[in-house]
Amino acid sequence: MHIKILAIGKTDDKALTQLIADYIKRLSFYVKFSLEIIPDLKKAKNLSETQQMDKEGSLILNKITTADTLILLDEGGKQYSSVAFSEYLQKHMNSGIKQLVFVIGGPYGFSDALYARANGKLSLSKMTFSHQMIRLFFIEQIYRAFTILKNEPYHHR
């Protein structure tokens, strides 16, 4: 299985970028993984929130196939402990899907079209984090999930 994260907008902070790269490298020992950044919309200030969500939604939908399992990182999504999230990933791997795509949206969330296409929603916390920081937190949790599945000492119970 391939795990892909689609995220809107680049990460400006070099320290965050380095940490993200470190966890992506670590993940490569467990699973085929990629992070794809969709550039911020040009002239977004001229767009309403709905127009911005619709345009971002179209860009995201163009990056996935009908066979992909699409999970939106959304504040209204299901929350998991780290152990339960590792079981969630294992269940997807056992199902035989080829690609599991997680989406980190823009500042206003997701379009109706993306919600309609999504196979599920996942929330990392009831708190709000910056879209740049959530990338690091989520990639670290994916890495943690694989260390849990392999009974490695990274995650202490």
TrEMBL record:
Enzyme class name: transferase
Catalyzed chemical reaction(s): pseudouridine(1915) in 23S rRNA + S-adenosyl-L-methionine = N(3)-methylpseudouridine(1915) in 23S rRNA + S-adenosyl-L-homocysteine + H(+)
Protein keywords: Cytoplasm, Methyltransferase, rRNA processing, S-adenosyl-L-methionine, Transferase
GO molecular function: rRNA (pseudouridine-N3-)-methyltransferase activity
Matches recorded under InterPro entries: Alpha/beta_knot_MTases (IPR029028), RlmH-like (IPR003742), tRNA_m1G_MTases_N (IPR029026)
Gene3D superfamilies: 3.40.1280.10
Pfam families attached to this UniProt entry: SPOUT_MTase
Binding site for S-adenosyl-L-methionine: 73, 105, 124-129
GO cellular component annotations of the record: cytoplasm
Organism superkingdom: Bacteria
EC code: 2.1.1.177
Subcellular location: Cytoplasm
Assigned protein family: Belongs to the RNA methyltransferase RlmH family.
Protein purpose: Specifically methylates the pseudouridine at position 1915 (m3Psi1915) in 23S rRNA.
Quaternary organization: Homodimer.
Matching NCBIfam families: PRK00103.2-4
Protein name according to UniProt: Ribosomal RNA large subunit methyltransferase H
Organism encoding this protein: Aquimarina intermedia
